[in-house]
Amino acid sequence: MTESLAAVVLAWNEERHIGDCLDSLAWADVRVLFDSISTDHTVEIAQNRGAKVLQHPFESFAAQRNAALAAVDADWVLFVDADERVTPALADEVRRVIGYTGSQAHAGWWIPRHNYMIGHRMRGGGWFPDPQLRLLRRGTARYDPTRPVHEVVILDGAAGTLDNVLIHYNYDSVAQFRHKMLRYTAFEASILRKQQVRVRPWTYATMPLREFWRRFVKLKGYEDHVYGLLFCGLMAWYTLVTYWQFRGVREKAEG
User: Fold this and answer.
1) Are residues 189 and 83 in the same domain?
2) Are 144 and 179 in contact (CB under 8 A)?
3) Which of 60, 75, 163, 165 might form a disulfide with 148, Cβ 3.0–4.6 angstroms?
4) What CA–CA distances, in Å, run from 151 to 6, 154, 215?
């Protein structure tokens, strides 16, 4: 029996990327733009590409993905972000593993990812293979609501790993990186609060340094030379901002 596949793209104001993203998904049974009420031409471009458009107000990344899983009628869902592209080789592999040749052994599949930052394909620092659990059998997968950002899939069954990669055009500039990371810090700060993390005065120095060491040394960010130094340093800065925001959230909560 042939298994159906819906390729779902979560987006908000992604007119720059959405057309090329949907074109890379033309092989799927149905393409769905799950839109967070865009105010640019994202919806119009998707409709012109023949994609089905569903709109849902944004609450969190986890909530948005769970809403998409509930709204789509297909055996399998492949989540792709607007700034990602599926290669023909990955498309062929996806079709094969979800059952087009009779394989039903897994409830989900991890997909490795190539991240391009300022035009450079990252090799270290945690940006490769950067596996993403994006190919999910509906009814066996849901997203942890306590992780509103950097979502975590709760999967009822085994997960395999695909060989072919997803292409991610991550950041075009340092300014774009900083802008995107600042959107995430509030979510991360709220997670720290829910986890009742205790922060000492030295935490604001030790945690960013630990993050830089982890990415640049342990995860071999040095293999990317100046790009590794730059983005590992920016991730350390992101960690500092997250803890600084957490301090503000905690002080506000304590009155």
Assistant:
1) no
2) no
3) 60
4) 20, 10, 20
